[in-house]
Amino acid sequence: MADVRSIVILTGAGISAESGIDTFRDAGGLWERHRVEDVATPEGFARDPDLVLGFYDMRREALHSREPNAAHRALARLDAEWGGDLLIVTQNVDDLHERGGARRVLHMHGELKSALCTSCEMRSPWDAPMSNRPPCPVCQAPTLRPDVVWFGEMPYQMDRIYRALRGADLFVSIGTSGAVYPAAGFVRDARELGARTLELNLERSEGSHWFHESRQGKAGELVPAWVE
Ligand code: BJW
């Protein structure tokens, strides 16, 4: 990495799989057991808020017993020890990057441990159930929802992400199927802007052909090997 000054790392559900967190589209993944239209769209939430709040309560609760794995810790080491520009853009709503020690993390699809109030639009740290309709800590209205980005909604901090992609010499994608936009388009954007591109994933993703290099295997093995 001698000639690299700026790295953007995109992570997806696969980086947390070895911590026991379900992915979405793998066999046995979340979308096999839950209809995406019901639990991950604003329309689904309007139709049946109890179902959606219960789905996210279950995942938030499960997060308490999950720990960062070797891949999260390796990225945290890179973050701490590498002096150049670095941004870890995660699609994950878990907090395993932070608990693994990483600091330069951006959650483009929101966070399980955050609540969004649909009345005052404030985001608040949150680590309790929501299906009992607690009041918003800011405006007291009983209108909290999970602070996650559903289909049809705009992911967070897109300006900051594209700014980082424009400056990146290296783009690394870890544990994502490349099925969901705009994240799935970052490799193409980064490559067209001149970055070298590397994929680390269990299998070739939908966008594998866009990468200069694609390595297959578990994130818990591939990521430490790449960082060292
Ligand atoms: C391992 C491993 C191990 C396993 N080691 N690897 C047509 C074209 C373009 C776009 C669209 C389109 N039609 C509709 C759209 C828009 C839509 C979209 O992309 N739809 C697709 C289905 C086509 N996108 C949106 O609506 C987004 N918003 C938007 O586009 O706004 C407009 C806009 C315009 C212009 C600029 C910017 C914005 C919003 C998308 C929101 C996604 N939300 C979810 C739920 C979040 C909350 C929650 O967690 O519940 O985000 S859906 C779900 O998918 C979640 C994930 O972050 C996301 C990506 O999944 P991920 O992480 O890739 O997981 P998997 O399961 O798919 O893959 C895991 C991978 O890991 C696999 O490859 C495994 O092999 C691998 N793996 N174990 C390494 N141990």
UniProtKB/TrEMBL annotation:
Asked if the Swiss-Prot or TrEMBL record annotates the protein with the keyword Metal-binding, the reply is yes
What is the source species?
Altererythrobacter litoralis
> Catalytic activity, per the record?
N(6)-acetyl-L-lysyl-[protein] + NAD(+) + H2O = 2''-O-acetyl-ADP-D-ribose + nicotinamide + L-lysyl-[protein]; N(6)-succinyl-L-lysyl-[protein] + NAD(+) + H2O = 2''-O-succinyl-ADP-D-ribose + nicotinamide + L-lysyl-[protein]
| Known function | NAD-dependent lysine deacetylase and desuccinylase that specifically removes acetyl and succinyl groups on target proteins. Modulates the activities of several proteins which are inactive in their acylated form.
Entry superkingdom: Bacteria
Q: Which residues bind NAD(+)?
A: 12-31, 91-94, 175-177, 201-203, 219
Residues of the active site: 109 (proton acceptor)
- Name-wise, this protein is NAD-dependent protein deacylase
Query: Which molecular function GO terms apply here?
Result: NAD-dependent protein lysine deacetylase activity
Cofactor(s) this protein cannot do without: Zn(2+)
The organism's taxonomy opens as: Bacteria, Pseudomonadati, Pseudomonadota, Alphaproteobacteria, Sphingomonadales
Binding sites annotated in the UniProt record for Zn(2+): 117, 120, 136, 139
